[in-house]
Sequence to fold (448 residues):
Amino acid sequence: MVKARPKSEEIFSKLLQTLPGGVNSPTRAFTGIGIPPIIVERGKGDLIWDFDGNEYIDFNMAWGSLILGHVDPHVVLRTKSQIDKGSSFGMTTPIELQLAEKLKELVPTMEKSRVVASGTEATMTAMRIARGFTKKNIIIKFNGHYHGHSDSFLVKAGSGVSHHFGDASSRGVPGDVVKHTRSLPFNDKEALKNCFDECSGEISAVIIEPVAGNMGVVPATKEFMDLVVSLTKKEEALLIFDEVITGFRIAKGGAQEYFNVKPDLSTFSKIIGGGYPVGVVGGRAEVMDMLAPVGDVYQAGTLSGNPVAMQGGYATLCALSEEGFYEDLKNKAEFLLSPVKKAIKKCNLPICLNEVGSMFSFFFGFEKVENFEDLLSLDRAIFNDFFIEMFELGIYLSPSPFESNFISSSHTKEHLEKASSAFCKYIEKLDEKISTGVLSNNYATSKS
Fold:
């Protein structure tokens, strides 16, 4: 039984009259979950409270943005100080230099960078730079990888797109635009080799989420990543790492440190803004110098380099640079998930728990997931039941089976223990729910 949230439901009913679907981003609508979405009033540390006063342990953390948790004092201090001086100028401010230097210190491949206003804008700009630099048009991406909602990338994308469109695309995207995009199965070496053979001389770049975070957590295999690197070098195409999610999430130097790969271009967002809207594209100096006013690739934005967002991002990067930060995050992840892995191993059901660093996701109905095609028979009924039960226990997970969950440095041992116990108990009684008909679907037929 779902507890009543009358104040939240009243707000959402009014939002339905003024916003498409009642939301400003699709996944917030709890599409397919079957309950009204959460309306958040406030957050602190690893907790959030809805408008009815209900408390939740937050494992969404603004879709991974808040690696320090809600209302981190260092972020609050710097951003409030900046607001007192001015929140926007449309001109250059000193904090832009500080952030760029800090970014380069943590991610050496970011020789030069350009701050934009969102992750979508960052990936869109990276694509434009790649085409301008190589003078070639074709972009290779991978099925289930979400690179924002610019036209060229809305081809077999993951994230909330998977809830709304069977082909994971969108209306309003001209065929003449996406004809230059090739979307391939992730971790499929033969498909990648064949595409490079068929499109030789036309490929400008390969863009990849090194760890997919918008179809659940699915990392690239070492063999596949090695092949991506070798083929882009051979073809003289650029390698773009989309680190909007993985940036500073799985390692201090991002996924490129984790995989020991040096991409030509990288995009960042989420964590780099400290909870404020921001995106960054950067990489090799000669490639980045294609951007105006130096080069002929145009990009501009009134709020690019917004000083409040820059202060929030700089405070966050300084905090995660402290010695032991990632060791502590790793320990939290192990404390939360190790008992859950044991519970999964003990049960007689196919459940896959994928984790990389402080990212994790559950796949119900599978023992192994390596690409989006593996998820075509994803059991959403089980996920919905799991999500709602956790929600009722005061544990907030990302409201989609295609999204990642995140651990922050603010998560306490007490709250991690509560969540871990709840995950284990759900897994232990899942078989009973299926056998008694409480959950009626094809999940039982997939038992090995």
